[in-house]
Amino acid sequence: DEDLCQGGHFTSNFILSPSPSVDVDGPPRKRSRISDPLILRNQEQHLQKAVPSIEILPDECLFEILRRVSCIRDRSACACVSKRWLLLQSSIRRSEIVSRPNNCNFVNVSKMAPATNTSRGFRHADSGAMDVDDEKVTAPSVEADDGDSEEGIGRDDGYLTRFLQGKKSTDVRLAAISIGTVKLGGLGKLLIRGTDATRGVTDVGLSAIARGCPSLKVLSIWDVPSISDASLCEIAQGCHQLEKLDLSHCPMITDRGLVAIAENCPNLSSLTLESCPRVRNEGLQAIGRSCSNLQSVNINDCPLVGDQGVASLVACAAGLVKIRLQALNISDLSLAVIGHYAKSVTELSFMGLQYVGERGFWALGNARGLKKLKSLAVSFCKGMTDSGLEAIGLGCPVLKHLCLRRCFFISDNGLCVFARAAGTLESLQLEECNQITQTGILSSLSDCKAKLKTLSLVKCMGIKDQNGCLVPLPVCNSVRSLTIRDCPCFGSQGLAVVGKVCPQLQHVDFSGLTGITDSGVLSLMENCRAGLVKVNLSGCINLTDDAITHLTTLHGGSLQLLNLGGCRRLSDESLKVILANCPSLQDLDMSKCSITDHGIVSLPSCGGGLPDLQVLSLSGCSQVSDKSVPILRKLSSSLVGLNLQRCNLISNKAVGWLGERMWRCDILS
């Protein structure tokens, strides 16, 4: 008013054009009488907005109110009001809730909140996420979950499980989980894979889980860089029943968090640390001292972890059953300690231990402490040599499974000595062990022929056809599964030897063997006395229809899986003999074969059928068109998977028609 009327009457410097409904009359300095309905309505709305609301209270006061709401149903309703209420509710520890008798009869404070809500995206209050929109707040039950692939809820191993991935991994969702899962008996398993880039998971959300989910037993966090020791300490303080902890790609986690877990979670049985660059030895030492139930340890790519941490952990945790160490800066000392103290270990895995030498693996076996070891996997460790392999064979009397990958210094001599010492060996896998030859393999089979069931040779350049083989050839009737994959020098001559040495084969995988021909396959098939069940010949580009004809004639009655992908010389004739001779076939892959419409259309006249076929792949069969679609529909009533990718002559319309009539089948096109 002072600014408007000072100086008496209006002057020419201020021009006012009042509305007809506005009366401007009176002496200077007198307030104008305003009767415009629009202005009055705005004033009334302003007065209404000034009505006192619970929202004007500071967080401290609202915290005191909410902690006096102890009924689970009312707490869930309060959490649905807004993000502010939700986060405040989730910050209340259970010990801070004021319990009162018959508290469910009290007035629900959520009704005192404003009707509007600014938060969105909550679903399923009872399952840990709540529906909040501008009109209605709901709290549906767990059965209403939408089954989104990036977010799931269910029960796994008897636990109530929540899974968050990518953009759905936020603090708000974790806060909702901490409130909503109480009604369902409490959260037992939480898995977080990745996080939202702008508003992802931080210590706030994980701390909410710690306060609201004391029954949590399994926590797995992958690629969440914002969490630190603060929230891990909260987990330790609030989740004393924690049994499994998996922290991968969490750069802010240090020994402080692990020490807190060790001191407060005595039931911890499984620990996985991967790419946690700030974790040192102290955390592992604390875990070993305090977690007497520890059974499984997996440490990968933690550069500050050394001999002191690993040795102390293994020496103190007497109940360890499984140890996996990868890309660590440890030396021979750690393997010597494992060989001496790991008396209960049944499974060992070492990968990329560049500072472990020959003495380390020698000490691992000669310490003679691995009396219960059943499975050993060593990958890309230059310290694994013949002497170490021999010591392991002598020091591990019940070893059943051995896997060696990229162990370049293992030769035929070491393998033979090991085979003689390891009398219980059932499975042998060699990958990129280039000093191993066919002679070494045959000698090993002659030494462990009583127990060996599975033999796998992958990318071993030394496995090749040889004229001077062992005479007489050993016969290993125990071998049921044989894999020789991507060995470019292995051909039909070697395949004929395989058939004589292993006459009881049921599963064979010869994928990528470009040197084998029809004659080698025929020789193998004739020597296999037991019916072949699974056959993988993918990438064997020199095979023709004759090989498939012999295969299906001799073993078609027992075949359940046949993979011929990439065998370009196979034509419609192969498809016909498969259909006629393989009634038990469940999985057929003829990708990139020379299959045409003529072959598929003529199938109904071939007799037989594939009543049990579940998966069929014709990917890359460029000569198959829409004409084949009606026949494919009738091929098998049990089909659940059909791959028509890169079949360029099959139209989208035909695929749609096929999908409508085969609604139980997943079709890739």
From TrEMBL:
Any one of the GO CC terms: nucleus
GO terms under biological process: ethylene-activated signaling pathway; negative regulation of ethylene-activated signaling pathway; SCF-dependent proteasomal ubiquitin-dependent protein catabolic process
Record keywords: Ethylene signaling pathway, Nucleus, Ubl conjugation pathway
Keyword Transferase among UniProt keywords: no
Predominant location category: nucleus
Limits of the F-box/LRR-repeat protein 15-like leucin rich repeat domain: 198-419, 494-656
Localization (cell): Nucleus
InterPro entries reported for this sequence: F-box-like_dom_sf, FBXL15_LRR, Leu-rich_rpt_Cys-con_subtyp, LRR_dom_sf
SUPFAM superfamilies, per database record: F-box domain (SSF81383), RNI-like (SSF52047)
Name this polypeptide is given: F-box/LRR-repeat protein 15-like leucin rich repeat domain-containing protein
Pathway, per record: Protein modification; protein ubiquitination
Chain segments carrying region Disordered: 118-154
The species this protein was found in: Nymphaea colorata
Family matches, as SMART domains: LRR_CC
